[in-house]
Write a structure and sequence with these properties.
The protein has one domain (26-314). The longest helix has 37 residues, at 86-122. It is 75% helix and 2% strand. The radius of gyration is 20 Å and the shape is globular. The model is unreliable at 1-16 (pLDDT under 50). It is mostly helical. Helix 8 packs across helix 11 (241-265).
């Protein structure tokens, strides 16, 4: 296992304890990788979303991810039924319903009301949510420099995003913001409420279990509220599987493993700050693959956010 921090200090006897360099620990690397692969997934989601509705897209992503995880378990030589107390199985199931089924549904509903740009702006609540929940559940505190770094990341995302779609009404704006904020708070609680289980057991098995439970629940509820045809239309659209399958592999599968591993090997607040870089990556990838214009405002946002991540990485 990579050490939590690989720092070298000044020569002994000099009284100097200032680090010459400091390498990101494995949890922070996982958090950055989660941001990167999720950003790639978002680009593919944007392309797929023109033809598949949000609920159907979410069910397809969850179903495909469940298959990927279930295949990975025997490949890695792990057990399908690890020895866990019934209480932990229940906690993981509740975590899945909260963090994936409900939070993702709220996120999609907020996206419909706010549009992509305002949703991205509302998404900056992610880091503060993880910090707040981490403090409430574990008493984790960040230093002043780490808080400054987090603030720079949030500021960078806020500056870099601009409104691209009009909101239909003031009510949609208010409801959309509440839904977006709620989705991040519930997502944060959902993963952190089982962090002790995550740290003791396989990330792959836990991710498989959570996604399977969440997808089954979402499919059942969606079929009751909509119709089975609407919920499972993604599986019928084989013409765009070439986009949706890589999307499901990068985001729900690889992204979730990296994201979960980030919280397993570092504190909630630090992982959240690095995860926030996903919005910056999305801006850059959108410029190349979606031909979106990279404005001076977006460039400033990228500089602020990357600068914030560097500040966090250097403050050990």
């Amino acid at each position: 296992m990579i050490r939590s921090c690989a720092c070298q200090f000044g020569p002994e006897g000099t009284g100097s304890r200032r680090p010459r360099y400091c390498v990101m620990n494995e949890g922070e690397i996982f958090a950055v990788m989660a941001a990167l692969v999720w950003s790639c997934c978002v680009i593919l989601m944007r392309i797929s979303g023109f033809q598949v509705p949000p609920v159907a897209l979410t069910v397809f992503k969850g179903g495909a991810a469940s298959i990927f995880f279930l295949v990975a378990i025997p490949v890695l030589g792990e057990s399908f039924f690890p020895s866990l107390p019934a209480r932990d199985y229940l906690r993981l199931a509740i975590s899945a319903v909260l963090g994936i089924t409900i939070a993702d549904t709220l996120y999609a509903a907020a996206l419909n009301r706010l549009g992509a740009s305002l949703q991205a702006l509302a998404g900056v609540i992610y880091s503060p949510s993880m910090v707040a929940v981490g403090y409430l559940l574990f008493g984790e505190m960040l230093g002043n420099w780490e808080l400054l770094g987090g603030a720079l990341v949030v500021a960078g995302v806020g500056v870099g995003m601009r409104k691209t779609e009009d909101v239909k009404s003031h009510r949609d704006l208010v409801v959309g913001i509440v839904m977006a904020v709620s989705s991040h708070l519930i997502m944060a609680f959902g993963i952190l409420m089982v962090r002790d289980v995550i740290r003791e057991h396989s990330v792959v098995w836990i991710s498989a279990y959570r996604f399977l439970i969440a997808t089954v629940v979402l499919s059942a509820v969606g079929s009751l509220c909509l119709s089975p045809r609407q919920v499972f239309i993604g599986f019928a659209r084989r013409d765009i599987w070439k986009i949706m399958i890589p999307m499901s592999f990068l985001g729900p599968f690889m992204g979730t493993m990296f994201w979960t591993a980030g919280f397993k090997y570092t504190t909630a607040g630090r992982a959240a700050i690095y995860n926030q870089l996903s919005t910056v990556f999305i801006v850059i990838l959108a410029m190349f693959f979606l031909k979106e214009r990279l404005t001076a405002r977006k460039i400033l946002g990228v500089i602020l956010a990357v600068g914030g991540a560097i500040v966090v990485a250097l403050q050990k």
